[in-house]
Amino acid sequence: MRTIAVLNQKGGVGKTTTVANTAGALAERGYRVMVIDLDPQAHLTIHLGVDAESDGSGAYDVLCNSANIKEELLHVRENLWLLGANIDLVGAENELVSVVGREIILREALKEVSEFFDYLIIDCPPSLGLLSLNALSAVGEVFIPIQPHFLALQGFGKLMQTVTLVGSRINPSLKISAILLCMYDSRTTLSSDVKSDIEQFLENARGTDQPWADAEIVPIHIRRNIKLAEAPSFGKTIFEYEPACNGASDYQAVAEYLIGGNGDGQTQAETEVAEQSDEDDSSPEAVTEPEPRSVQEAREAAQTASEQTPDPDETAAFEYGADDMSDYERGDLDTNSDEQDLQNRRAMGE
Ligand SMILES: Nc1ncnc2c1ncn2[C@@H]1O[C@H](COP(=O)(O)OP(=O)(O)OP(=O)(O)O)[C@@H](O)[C@H]1O
Ligand SMILES: [Mg+2]
C-alpha cells in the first residue's frame, strides 16, 4: 500500500480538494483506495457526500476509543473507502494528552487493513498538532499542496522541521515526495516566482539527508477552476460533477503522475503540463479571483488575512503537549525551526 499524507498547516491551500479528487481518480481507474479525514472540519467527509454528524465518527473512534478501523470504514464509492471525521475530533488532542504512544495510534490501527488497499491518502487539518503527527507517523510520503500567493512559503520551515522531527524520532522512512501547486495561474508573475523559490529550495537539498532531498514539484499544476469549488457542496468528486472541466483533467493528471511517479514514469504528466492552458472553462459562472496589483496591495491583503486567521504555527508547540515531543515544548526545536525558517527564507532570497 502506498501511503500519502496531504499536509500544509496553512489553511485553504487545496489539501481536501486534492485528496478527494486524486482518490476519486485512482478509484475510478480500479485502484483500491482508502482516504482518512483527520480534520475536525470534516470537509473531506462532506465532499464525498457523507453526513459528517451522523456517520463521521470513524477517525475519532479509532484514535480515542480504540475502535477497529475495519468496522469504521465507510464504502463511499466503488473502490473507495473513507474513515470519516466530524467535530468530535476537536477533542482528540486533549483526550489523548496522557496516552502513551499517542502519535502512533493511527499507524497501529492501519496494520489491520493495509493489505487490502493500493493507496492510502490522508487529509490533514491545517495545523501541526497531534492529528497531523498521527498522519506523519503512519505514512511513507508527504504531499504538500501550496497556493502560490504572497507569503505562500511563510511557515514552510516549520513544516519541514516537523517532518524532519517525526522522521528522526518516529518514522525513519518518511519523505516529502512532492509539492503540488494548487489554484495556479501561470499568467501571474507571483505564481512563477513562488514556483522558482520552491525549485531553488529543493535544489539546495539535493544529495543531503533531508526528508525533502528527493522531493519534486508535481509537473501538473492545479488551475483555478470554479467547478472544483462547487463540487463539494454536491457531495461529489469533480469527475462526478463536471468530468470535462479543467479541474477534472488536472486531477486526472495528478493521479497519472502518482501511478507512474516512482522515478521514471513522468513523461506523460510532463507532456500534459506543457499543454495546460490557463484559460478557465468558458462556462458563464467561471470566475477568477482578482490578483493583487502591487506589492503594497498584496501586503494589505495578507495583513487582513492574517488578522482574521490565527497563524497555526503559533499554536503548534502548544499542540504537541507530548513527553516524547518535549524538546518542542521546551522550545529547543522551536529555536532550530526559526533558524531553519530564516535560512530557508534567505535561500529563497526573501
Ligand atoms: N483549483 C481550485 N480552483 C478553485 N477553487 C479551489 C481549487 N482548489 C480548491 N478550491 C476551493 O478553495 C477552498 C479551499 O480548498 P480546500 O478545502 O481544498 O483547502 P484545504 O487546504 O483543505 O483547507 P483547510 O486548511 O481549511 O482544510 C475550497 O472552497 C475549495 O473548494
Ligand atoms: Mg481541508
TrEMBL record:
Q: Which InterPro entries match?
A: AAA_dom, DNA_Partitioning_ATPase, P-loop_NTPase
Q: Where is the composition biased (Basic and acidic residues)?
A: 290-300
Which parts form a coiled-coil structure per UniProt?
A: none
Query: According to the UniProt record, where is the region Disordered?
Result: 262-350
Q: Which residues form the AAA domain?
A: 1-176
The biased composition feature labelled Acidic residues covers: 272-283, 310-326
What is the protein name given in its UniProt record? Sporulation initiation inhibitor protein soj
Which source organism? Anaerohalosphaera lusitana
Tell me what gene encodes this: soj_1
